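User: Fold this one for me? It's HTH-type transcriptional regulator YofA.
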Amino acid sequence: MDIQLFRTFLLVAKLNNITQAAEQLNFTQPTVTAQIQTLEEHFGAALFERIGKKLYITAAGRELIIHAGRLLTAYNDMNTGMQRFSAAANPINLGASTTAASYILSPILLDFQERCPAGSILVDICTNLPMTVKGLLDNTFDLAIVHDNISHNQILQFNLSKEKLVWVAKRDLFVTHHHCHDISHYPFINFRPGCVYRSKYEEVVQEQDVHSLIEYSDAEAIKRAVLDGLGASILPHVLVEAYLEDGTLVELTGKPQLTFIISVAFHKNKVLTSALRSLLLLFAEHATIRSDLYCYLNTKP
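Assistant: Here's what I get for HTH-type transcriptional regulator YofA.
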């Protein structure tokens, strides 16, 4: 029997209200009612009685409170006791770009250390989306942090945040070019074809408007080249925010400002261990835009 039935029963018994229990569990009211009915059919006894608009627990329901409480305590103790073995034996394999690994994951992983001290995470750097998708499909990665939409019916994807892309140049180069904001006047440090950042700017900028000096597959390498004064480029704002604030870099405003979505992706058949579920919950908690990840986790056993 599904342990969730007893969680639902105990919450309804505590609140004496099916609607409020459904809201707290993020279930629909009919779902909660159906779960209570499943228990009543299994035990052959009514657990609640509705008189007017009020819900009252029956003698059978009061008896079940005792045993359901013990059952959930034992179940939680079992999970806690076994978690250290499963977490240690099966670290979470996470694929991410250098941007995500360096600037986005850190606060989430810090919280994960506190919530799952026995858990471990292995982060692999992915330079392109096909590599990431392959890793999810062949189970190399349990999760991946991606910057682009994945069109594959075996992969689930949940949005986490919207990030800015900015056109930047070193201040010295900006001065040399007479404070020009037109990117076409600068040597351009480009991303390799297939990179989401390149795909984004190619939607609004013609190929002849950028004069590629050199191409990299890594955003950190491009940031370093821009800081060295080799040319201008387009980079995630989170990578260059500190340099814009201290004046080392200048934002070029001659082209439209672009955005991209950071999301977490995993195989739809991925078994959610306790550690993996905890990590996904942290992603949901840290999300800065609307995400359906909470709802998914509440419905996934």
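One thing worth pointing out: Residues 3-87 form a domain with the Arc Repressor Mutant, subunit A fold (CATH 1.10.10.10).
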